[in-house]
Amino acid sequence: MKRIFDLSVSLILLWILSPLFILIAILVGCKLGRPILFTQMRPGFKGQSFIIYKFRSLTDEKDRNGNLLPDTKRFTRFSSLIRRSSLDELPELINVLKGDMSLVGPRPLLMQYLDRYDAVQARRHDVKPGITGWAQVNGRNAVSWEEKFKMDVWYVDNFNFWLDLKILWLTLFQVCRQEGIQQKGHVTAEEFLGVRKDE
């Protein structure tokens, strides 16, 4: 049922939102340049890698040595707009259509985090990652990594169709409120460095 729901909703949304996709693509090209889409390897179900698609939200400004500047230096007013409204996440509907992701599930993070999870945190990969999730509607980036992972594992243990519908509904309010998008001093969130050994 979850896959049928994901497939149906992603197809409908891609069709309905196609004019918005075109508009955002044009704005990204004008404001930030090419490529229009940001692609990156992310861990999915059972940690298997896949390519995630997002609208680009940072410039490609470099220092004198040709190295990309820190994210905070490449973050523009347009970047803030597209991140606050979560419009940069829309191409992930393609990932849902392909089966790499679900509409609802733990957010796909970075590949290098895989070796930093403890045994419990790693269970977040027992389901497909999602565009939105329980942690996203309960603080998003305003909560600590440990709290996020606890919510991710709670979702893994309790997910069902009605919970997914609740999360999707709450996501609409979360997007409208535009809360918890950034941690102070970071474009999104600080890097997860793993569980402290003294804890």
What's a concise summary of this model?
The chain has 199 residues and is α+β, with helices and mostly antiparallel strands.
Low-pLDDT residue spans = none
Strand order of the largest sheet: 1-2
Measured as a percent range, the helix fraction is 25-40%
The shape, in one word, is globular
Number of helices: 6
Whole-number average pLDDT?
88
| Rg over CA atoms | 17 Å
Main sheet?
2 strands, antiparallel
- The separation of the N and C termini measures 40 Å
Fraction in beta strands = 5-15%
Structural class: alpha+beta
Number of strands: 4
Note the run of SSEs as H and E. HHEEHHEEHH
Give the tags.
two-stranded antiparallel sheet, 6 helices, globular
How would you describe what is shown here?
Helices cover 38% and strands 10% of the residues. The chain has six helices and four strands; from the N terminus they run ααββααββαα. It has a two-stranded antiparallel ribbon with strand order 1-2. A two-stranded parallel ribbon has the order 3-4. Strand 1 and strand 2 form a beta hairpin. The chain is globular and about 50 Å long. The mean pLDDT is 88.
Furnish the topology, listing elements before pairings.
Blueprint: H1 2-16, H2 18-31, E1 37-43, E2 49-55, H3 77-84, H4 92-98, E3 102-104, E4 130-132, H5 145-158, H6 161-177
